[in-house]
Amino acid sequence: MSAHHVTESPLDTAETSFRLLTTGPGSLSLDCATLAPGLPRGPVGLLELRVLLTSRHVTDDARDAVWRELVARARQSRSTWTVAAVGMAIPALRAIVLSLTREMSCGDPVDIDIAILAGYLRALHRVDLDLPDVRPRMCEAARYAGEHALRYITAKAERQRPAGEPPPLPRPWFHPDLVLIDAAAEGVLSELDAELISLSRLEDVPLRTLRPVRKPRHRRDMTLDRRPVVAGNRTPDLPLAHCFIRRRG
């Protein structure tokens, strides 16, 4: 995530695991036609679906339907589909990390990453699926966990700093996603627009061509150009532990 990270971010590890599950033959997909109207017919690969859910053509109800299915599968299968549910939220979780650590002057930002991921995983198994805004509520729980960890790290550094010593200055680091975060905060972009730009321009995920298909009585549906994203083989069942990293002793 940034040059001053001491260890690899668990979110980067989770993204790598997600891509192994969602590219190549046998990659994970969802049959969106059974979930909500306005989504493509037939199975849609999760890597494609992650981009599709940022489209303005997708309603909030359709997004919630997809996320209810992802959460339900994660609760039933605590490895493969948990990795999938984490991977689908990686852009939002990274934005939370960056917003909390941009002026962090002490401690390791990876600790914030770990707290955010842990908060998200707890919410994944506790969120009420009968209420709307499934993913936003899980991400809000992740943000709360990250804020709690940041307060703890800051307070600990304050206690350990010698009397009279000025507090350290924030680290001079930059990340292109910060521009998108600021633009969304100022209302220049919506959060979905910022996420789409991050995925397509910073994560090297090619945009899918969404084209309306006319149905009888002028009903419209959205279909996807099913070109492969990345060549590679799928690991059939990645354990949840692959999303975490061993901390240095």
Structure summary:
This protein is mainly α and 249 residues long. It is built from nine helices and four strands; from the N terminus they run αββααααααααββ.
Helix content: 40-55%
Runs with pLDDT <50, length 5+? 1-6, 209-249
What best-fitting shape do the alpha-carbon axes yield?
elongated
- How do the SSEs run, as a string of H and E? HEEHHHHHHHHEE
Strand content: 5-15%
End-to-end Cα distance, whole Å, is: 22 Å
| Largest sheet descriptor | 2 strands, antiparallel
Q: Count of helices?
A: 9
C-alpha Rg (nearest Å) = 19 Å
- Mean pLDDT value: 76
The spatial strand order of the largest sheet comes to 1-2
Number of DSSP-assigned strands: 4
Helix and strand composition category? mainly alpha
Architecture overview:
Residues 1-6 and 209-249 have low confidence and may be disordered. The strands form two sheets. A two-stranded antiparallel ribbon has the order 1-2. A two-stranded antiparallel sheet has the order 3-4. It has helices at residues 10-22, 46-52, 60-76, 80-88, 90-101, 109-124, 134-160, 177-185, 191-202; strands at 29-31, 43-45, 211-214, 220-223. The chain contains nine helices and four strands; from the N terminus they run αββααααααααββ. α1 (10-22) packs across α4 (80-88). The relative contact order is 0.20. It is mainly alpha-helical and 249 residues long. It starts with 9 loop residues before the first helix and ends in a 26-residue tail after the last strand. It is elongated and about 65 Å long.
